[in-house]
Amino acid sequence: DLYRKVFVFRKDPSDAYVLLKAQAERPLHNFTVCLRSYTDLTRPYSLFSYATKAQDNEILLFKPKPGEYRLYVGGKFVTFRTPEGRWDWEHVCASWESATGLTEFWFNGKPWPRKGLQKGYAVGAEAAILLGQEQDAYGGGFDPYNSFTGELADVHLWDAGLSPEKMRAAYQGLRLPPALLAWKNLSYETRGDVVVKNRLRE
């Protein structure tokens, strides 16, 4: 249970990452990924990387520069532009549904205009799921200049789209439905220079 805890990635650039173990036994036709990050990086970095043997960017939440997020599904991506911040925690949720190909992107509890991506696609199961690095091969192939440095918290992955109420609940840190990956019941391994610490501020 990582309630009120954070992963601190201390080095820049870094070879550190956190390996997550999810209960995803079958392909995903819908998903929602949420997390909170705190960093002063201005270079590109990866937040959440879900790779299969067939596709290294099966699901990828990537920040190529300040004020821009990319969501990849099956190797293709859409871009969401966000206000560039006050060096504060940023909470993002991204969801996708295969039937319509619609992606939702929520930034600090507010929805952005929806975009279309990979209609009819299925996200493969048996994935390597990493925080802090972008996989260019299954479970590896890291570029240190796409690594994350800073603090990560409140990571979740669901095999469904969340309702607007639940998207806002995720931002507020309220009770959430059962998830494939849940911050309060997370199965993980840290690799390299990453430590679990108490959160300094809300």
Automatic annotation (TrEMBL):
Q: Which cysteines are joined by disulfide bonds?
A: C34-C93
Annotated cofactor note: Binds 2 calcium ions per subunit.
Tell me the ranges covered by the Pentraxin (PTX) domain, including all copies: 3-202
Keywords, in A-Z order:
Acute phase, Calcium, Disulfide bond, Metal-binding, Secreted, Signal
Asked if the record carries the keyword Transport, the reply is no
Q: Name one GO cellular component term.
A: extracellular space
Against SMART domains, the record matches this protein to: PTX
Pfam families recorded for this chain? Pentaxin
| Gene3D superfamilies the record matches | 2.60.120.200
GO MF annotation terms: complement component C1q complex binding; metal ion binding
Where in or outside the cell it occurs: the entry states: Secreted
GO BP terms: namely: acute-phase response; innate immune response
Cofactor(s) it depends on: Ca(2+)
Mind telling me which InterPro entries this protein's record contains? ConA-like_dom_sf, Pentaxin_CS, Pentraxin_domain, PTX_dom
Read off the SUPFAM superfamilies from this record: Concanavalin A-like lectins/glucanases
**Does this entry carry the keyword Signal?**
yes
The family assignment reads: Belongs to the pentraxin family.
How is the quaternary structure described? Answer: Homopentamer. Pentaxin (or pentraxin) have a discoid arrangement of 5 non-covalently bound subunits.
Q: What is this protein called?
A: Pentraxin family member
